[in-house]
Design brief:
Blueprint (H helix, E strand, L loop, with lengths): L8 E6 L2 E6 L10 H14 L7 E6 L3 E3 L26 H8 L1 H10 L4 E5 L2 E3 L1 H8 L2 E5 L3 E3 L13 H9 L1 H10 L2 E3 H6 L5 E3 L4 H13 L3 H14 L4 H15 L3 H11 L10
Helix pairs in contact: 1-3, 3-4, 4-5, 5-6, 9-10
Length: 275
């Protein structure tokens, strides 16, 4: 995918980093169904791409992502319906959510590469859940995190009620979702939603620094750490330790693990290749 101003999703790969940028500033970077599905397909494909060792999700314009583009909704209605059937029936909305935004969030969570969110502006609605799904979050001063759903009379989607309490705790998640208030970047960082808040002018620089550090890391090991951590809050002790043991078995057989041990013995910095 070429990086051109008329594209709504921009992808560029350099130095082991795949940069994917939402490019719909006129719509607050709300995702149309097509852009959402393209982003899902991107995360699924990059997961197995040996050229990519880390992914950065960013956006152009004032907003990071303001959720779904309600002007381009699809999937709630079925054209072929029996005579007399209503335009929407039970199951339509659930099917649309499970086949749409939930798939995108799962593609990020299941991506074998670490994913950095570089948040330059407002992350609201589904955009807030994109932030929660990413592994590391950098946010510019002045940006906001908003679980806006209750303001619209609807409930959070895209896995928000699953992800948020695992970050901030149950009672704080209820406060955030019941009231739908704006969370400034600094408050989001205090609650653990954001790793670091930086001045807007420094966000690209810090993002690149973090991305290049991860691009030089042992990719398979980092991916396995991600998987273990993502499972940790829903695993019992026996399952968690069994998963850890088999993860050790898998990672110890990688070329990067051999290089790490060899470099330690030779007292030099390791040169990891990502496999």
């Amino acid at each position: 995918m070429q990086e051109t101003a008329d594209r709504e999703l921009l992808v560029e790969r350099r130095e082991g980093v795949s940069w994917v940028t939402i490019n719909r500033p006129e719509a607050g970077n709300a995702l149309s169904p097509d852009v959402r599905d393209d982003l899902t397909a991107f995360f699924r494909s990059v997961s197995a791409d040996l050229h990519t060792r880390v992914v950065v999700l960013g956006a152009n314009g004032k907003s990071f992502c303001t959720g779904a583009d309600l002007r381009r909704r699809k999937g709630l209605e079925t054209e072929d319906r029996p005579a007399g059937a209503p335009p929407k029936s039970m199951g339509d909305a659930a099917r649309a959510v499970s086949s749409g935004w939930q798939q995108l969030v799962m593609a990020i969570l299941d991506c074998e590469k670490p994913v950095i969110a570089s948040v330059q502006g407002t992350a609201a609605g589904g955009g807030a859940q994109l932030v929660l799904a990413c592994d590391l979050v950098l946010m510019a001063e002045g940006a906001r995190f908003i679980e806006v759903f209750v303001r619209r009379g609807i409930i959070p989607d895209a896995g928000g009620a699953y992800l948020l309490p695992r970050v901030v705790g149950l009672h704080k998640a209820k406060e955030i979702m019941f009231f739908g208030d704006d969370l400034p970047a600094e408050e989001a960082a205090r609650l653990g939603i954001v790793n670091r808040v930086v001045p807007p002018g420094e966000l690209p620089k810090v993002t690149e620094e973090w991305a290049l550090r991860l691009a030089a890391a042992p990719t398979k090991a980092v991916g396995m750490i991600k998987a273990l951590l993502n499972r940790s809050l829903e695993s019992d002790r026996t399952t968690a330790l069994r998963d850890e043991a088999w993860a050790q078995e898998a990672v110890n057989g990688t070329a990067d693990a051999s290089e790490g041990m060899r470099s330690f013995a030779e007292r030099r910095d390791p040169e990891f290749h990502g496999w």
